Request: fold
Amino acid sequence: MQQSDRIKAQSQIQIDNQDVVVTEWRFAPFAETGWHKHSMAYIVVPQTSGRLLLETKNGKQESEQFSELTAGESYYRPAGIEHNVVNANEHEFVFIEIELKR
Reply:
């Protein structure tokens, strides 16, 4: 699917307090987050299993990497990550993102 054909993933903030922001992300097949930079460290908790395409920038060069995620197997990333996340599945993909304010 061409990048211009992609639709936006849907996000819903569940908690936003002095410590964390908890957001549910729902990706229709081939939907994307859009380019963004994480200002906080974060944890992702996949709710479904599947493959995500991570588009990243290294200076002026863009790269693509696939990541296989399994429901319930969380991962952590530090602040400063800049990317576009794309659902590379033909089914909906859902994860919970927990951003750490402290």
Observations:
- The chain has no helices and nine strands.
- The radius of gyration is 13 Å.
- Residues 46 and 95 are 4 Å apart (CA to CA).
